[in-house]
Amino acid sequence: MENFKKKAMALNLSVEFSGKYTTYKLLDEPQIKNTRGRSLSKNHPEKYKFEGIMEKLKSNDVVLSIEELEELDKKL
Q1: pTM above the 0.85 mark?
Q2: Domain that residue 52 falls in
Q3: Torsion over CA: 26, 16, 6, 59 (sign)
């Protein structure tokens, strides 16, 4: 999970798991409010909850390092 949080910050994405809902906020955009995870996918709202992310991380392989991710983000 720490790797996920570090990569999210490298992409200027704030991810907050401390409340009742998982929330996301783009830090490099003029986004005023946080977005709840359930708003990101109407068909699969559980996908972006803490439990859904943890389940997905179990099966993921680390492909890009944080440095590689930051470099790709700069190119976009």
Answers
A1: no
A2: 2-75
A3: negative
